[in-house]
Amino acid sequence: MIEFSNVGLRYGQGPEILRDLDFRIEPGTFHFLTGPSGSGKTSLLKLLLLSLRPTRGRVTLFGKDTSALDQDALLQMRRHIGIVFQEFRLLDHLTTFENVALPLRVLGEPESSYRANVTELLEWVGLGSRLDAHPAVLSGGEKQRAAIARAVIGRPDILLADEPTGNVDPELSLRLVRLFAELNKMGTTIILATHELPLLDNFPFPRMNLHEGQVVFSD
Amino acid sequence: MIELRLPRFAGLDSRERAAPIVPERSVAGRTLVLLIAIMTFLSGVTLGGVVLVQKSAIAWSSDVGREMTIQIRPMEGEVMDSNLRTAVALAEATPGVASARALTLEERQQLLEPWLGAGLDLSAIDIPRLVVVQLADPGEADIAKLERDLQSVKGASLDTHAAWRQQLNVMAGTIVASGLLVLALIVVATVLAIIFATRGTMSSNREIVDVLHFIGASNSFIAGEFQGRFLTIGFRGGIIGGLGALLFFFLVGLAAGSMVPQEAGQQLGILFGRFALGIDGMFGILAVIPVIAAMTAITSRMTVRRFLQKTS
Lengths: 219, 312
What we know:
The structure holds 2 protein chains of 2 kinds.
Chain A: E1 2-10, E2 16-25, E3 30-34, H1 41-49, E4 56-61, E5 64-65, H2 71-78, E6 81-85, H3 96-105, H4 111-124, H5 140-152, E7 158-162, H6 170-185, E8 189-193, H7 197-200, E9 207-211, E10 214-218
Parallel strand pairs in A: 3-8, 3-9, 6-7, 7-8
Antiparallel strand pairs in A: 1-2, 1-4, 4-5, 9-10
Chain B: H1 29-65, E1 67-72, H2 80-92, E2 97-102, H3 105-116, E3 129-135, H4 143-150, E4 156-159, H5 162-204, H6 206-214, H7 219-259, H8 262-272, H9 278-311
Antiparallel strand pairs in B: 1-3, 1-4, 2-3
């Protein structure tokens, strides 16, 4: 599903942030992406999200070389990938329901066609009573659950999460990662970037450790 | 992927319409509405001015073109009254001529009064006499034949007022061209202002654009969301400016009517036309409104697309 071949990335004329990345991630797996701040976790996620192109090497997603894709094809492929950010990135003027429904709305689907699904999903992540609340009145945990719901409402094949537990307390962090684990059980491939190593000990998933621009896999 | 069967949320059926993705307050709305209103007002006033000048020029040119003057200078050995009758008869016999008549003594006195003063006895002075020739159809009048025929009348010459008309047309054409140039400059200034406003809006809404990109929105979808906002702003500003321009012409027309005495007003009307736009002029100004709104929407869409191509 995801294959990196000799991938390198640099910004402008600077040094390579990521180098000689060679790995393969199978569908339906769950990986933690770890490494200290500035090790390139977000850059690697951006490569996976197709919002950055590698300066060398080849990124293959869903069996297609992404460097050969035009704008439209990249857009279509991006719709199979969900993303969750540490800082939530919900739109403040929209309600929880509207934020979660946004990926379907941009596809031009009428509200009547997704109303029930969005409501069920929000119930599932524990926000059934917060449908009409705006992000300003949600707690950090609620915002992150809304962000996760927004990332999965379009049923992506791959779900990327960039420090999703960075702004919540340890107990809630654990609950959020369990939520990702539940999604993984349903078949979604998940890559969750975090630097909270103690959290990872609660889960049996393999780790991708970024060190000096290279990935080292460990169980 | 998620196969959950949970009870529907009853409150959803009464949900209000989804909020716009680009919030209204985040677009530099009020300032831009005011700017577009001013630009539409200026466009409307310029367009109305052009219409007024053109209509007056056409009307005056048409009036002047329907009339010719035969001038008969006094000549020794010639009988003026006889020559006048001949000239009138020749004119009346010319195809396309509706009527011809010699100016009476009183009419001649009135004509010369501004220069020679009142109470003048013209019968004691030998001055050229005039025959006014009205044309039924200026296009079909055989002016060349009349000129040939008048050669038999000593001292007679024909004035078709062609030089006047030509000068008037040149003057009116210059004013119309200047008005259109001003209109074009207003359009360019409006487009530039919209481009700057759109860029500002895009920068202040960068977070929304980024989120929309991450969730898989296409550039044309994002551009459409912003275009909708700008179309509304364009219509709002256009309506305010367009109605303002119509009100301006209405008030100026009223003021012109009440400030100038009725008799002078009639003469001014004959010379410069009535200060009234007419239905076509009003439609012209009203047509500026959708044009400005569409221009706002198209310009912002193109600016947004360029912005998105650079950032995505």
